[in-house]
């Protein structure tokens, strides 16, 4: 069994178009939530979102090629460029068959579907672009990343709703553990801030409508939380076997020591109120790492800012950790970047790795009125300087799908 380490991270988020800017703004408590600019949202109940600002795909992708990619794929390819630039390394041709890609995407090219449907109504089916299907399919992010990186190993897309990015990293980690690959590019990408995307989640009453105060709208674990805020972006990790990373003299940021997955077997969109399924995923990751739950000192929570999720996640954490739950420093990045759906697990895994590497736990903003049902330490007073040894990253999605990753400070 191979040990697996993280040797580079990259992110494009509503608070920064690279990982350094995103991390700096995360620690500064800045919110990336603002009025929607992608379309006229005046008729929508929710008029705010976590948009990526001033992203120029041609920095990373030739203009002609960029036009043949949906935004989620552009984010994934942009992150891949940054991932290898930060690693100071490219995949040698002779190793290409031992390097793979797993990218989680929840919905795929929703904007392409909307635009093309309207074009068909206006001009007829004969005017549909031959690139329509290749552009919109969710696995095109992994496909284009594979092309960009020259990775000829596993080329896979995980589509498990809001757990997509986390399951992608878990699958990539498993491939290296089992010896199927030496190097994996993994994480999540998503961009569904569209008329249909917002309308669909509004129809479910899942989104906050606190439109007059965008920066205060996403408030995980707060008594006055009223729904999540949609975000977009991408977060990728470069994983390598420890042997491969050492052989090339890589800078090791953290080690992946556990991956857990579970199903609620309960409801299409609602978790069971006791948090059983969530707890099973956390327990699986901890069990795989062969550590005691009392050793976990940080959790990057799913923390969506919905009434049911935050309560259930709190109960799940208590179920797993007992009294130790109150000693764990928890953060909810969605308070600042919104919910990136399929990309959420990727971006939050990047932040969990940064937490270990930098010795700082981000805060959770907007928790002004503590909810008695969510009484754990969510770092509501801001970032904490702390040398984190073990960090869990949680993701839970519609369909009752749950994922959890366990990262460890690398100590040789």
From TrEMBL:
GO terms classed as biological process: fatty acid biosynthetic process
Tell me, in a sentence or two, what this protein's role is: Involved in the type II fatty acid elongation cycle. Catalyzes the elongation of a wide range of acyl-ACP by the addition of two carbons from malonyl-ACP to an acyl acceptor. Can efficiently catalyze the conversion of palmitoleoyl-ACP (cis-hexadec-9-enoyl-ACP) to cis-vaccenoyl-ACP (cis-octadec-11-enoyl-ACP), an essential step in the thermal regulation of fatty acid composition.
Is this entry keyworded Kinase?
no
Keyword terms, alphabetized = Acyltransferase, Fatty acid biosynthesis, Fatty acid metabolism, Lipid biosynthesis, Lipid metabolism, Transferase
Signal peptide start and end residues: none
From the UniProt record, give the pathway where this protein acts. Answer: Lipid metabolism; fatty acid biosynthesis
Q: Which Pfam families does the record match to this protein?
A: ketoacyl-synt, Ketoacyl-synt_C
Which residue ranges does UniProt annotate as crossing the membrane?
none
Q: Which SMART domains match?
A: PKS_KS
EC number of the protein: 2.3.1.179
User: Which reaction does this chain catalyze?
Assistant: (9Z)-hexadecenoyl-[ACP] + malonyl-[ACP] + H(+) = 3-oxo-(11Z)-octadecenoyl-[ACP] + holo-[ACP] + CO2; a fatty acyl-[ACP] + malonyl-[ACP] + H(+) = a 3-oxoacyl-[ACP] + holo-[ACP] + CO2
Domain (Ketosynthase family 3 (KS3)) ranges: 1-409
InterPro entries in the record: 3-oxoacyl-ACP_synth-2, Beta-ketoacyl_synthase, Ketoacyl_synth_AS, Ketoacyl_synth_C, Ketoacyl_synth_N, PKS_Beta-ketoAc_synthase_dom, Thiolase-like
- A single cellular component GO annotation: cytosol
What's the protein called, per UniProt? 3-oxoacyl-[acyl-carrier-protein] synthase 2
Q: Does the keyword Methyltransferase apply?
A: no
The family this protein is said to belong to: Belongs to the thiolase-like superfamily. Beta-ketoacyl-ACP synthases family.
Q: EC class of this enzyme?
A: transferase
Q: Which organism is it from?
A: Pseudodesulfovibrio profundus
**GO MF entries:** 3-oxoacyl-[acyl-carrier-protein] synthase activity
**Database matches in CDD domains:** KAS_I_II
């Amino acid at each position: 069994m191979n040990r697996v380490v993280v040797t580079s991270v990259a992110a494009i988020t509503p608070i920064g178009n690279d990982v350094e800017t995103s991390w700096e703004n995360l620690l500064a408590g800045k919110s990336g939530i603002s009025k929607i600019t992608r379309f006229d949202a005046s008729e929508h109940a929710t008029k705010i979102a976590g948009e990526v600002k001033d992203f120029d795909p041609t920095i990373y992708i030739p203009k002609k090629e960029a036009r043949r990619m949906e935004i989620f794929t552009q984010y994934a390819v942009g992150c891949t460029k940054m991932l290898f630039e930060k690693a100071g390394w490219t995949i040698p041709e002779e190793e290409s068959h031992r390097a793979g890609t797993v990218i989680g995407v929840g919905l795929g090219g929703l904007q392409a579907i909307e635009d093309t449907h309207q074009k068909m109504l206006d001009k007829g089916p004969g005017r549909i672009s031959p690139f329509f299907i290749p552009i919109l399919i969710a696995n095109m992010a992994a496909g284009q990343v594979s092309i960009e990186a020259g990775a000829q190993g596993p080329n896979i897309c995980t589509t498990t709703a809001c757990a997509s990015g986390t399951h992608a990293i878990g699958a990539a980690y498993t491939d290296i553990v089992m010896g199927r690959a030496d190097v994996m590019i993994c994480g999540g990408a998503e961009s569904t801030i569209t008329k249909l995307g917002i309308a669909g989640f509004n129809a479910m009453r899942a989104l906050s409508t606190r439109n007059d105060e965008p920066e205060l709208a996403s408030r995980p674990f707060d008594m006055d939380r009223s729904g999540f805020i949609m975000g977009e972006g991408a977060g990728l990790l470069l994983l390598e076997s420890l042997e491969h990373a050492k052989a090339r003299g890589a800078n090791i940021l953290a080690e992946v020591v556990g991956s857990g997955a579970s199903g609620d077997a309960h409801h299409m969109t609602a978790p069971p109120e006791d948090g059983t399924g969530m707890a099973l995923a956390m327990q699986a990751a901890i069990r795989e790492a062969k550590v005691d739950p009392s050793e976990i000192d940080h959790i990057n929570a799913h923390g969506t800012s919905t009434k049911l999720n935050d309560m259930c996640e709190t109960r799940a954490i208590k179920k797993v950790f007992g009294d130790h739950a109150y000693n764990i420093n928890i953060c909810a990045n969605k308070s600042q970047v919104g919910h990136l759906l399929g990309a959420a697990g990727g971006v939050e895994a990047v932040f969990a790795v940064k937490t270990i590497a930098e010795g700082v736990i981000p805060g959770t903003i907007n928790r002004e009125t503590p909810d008695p049902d969510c009484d754990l330490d969510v770092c509501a007073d801001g970032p904490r300087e702390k040398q984190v040894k073990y960090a869990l990253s949680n993701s839970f999605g519609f369909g009752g799908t749950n994922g959890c990753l366990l990262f460890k400070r690398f100590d040789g």
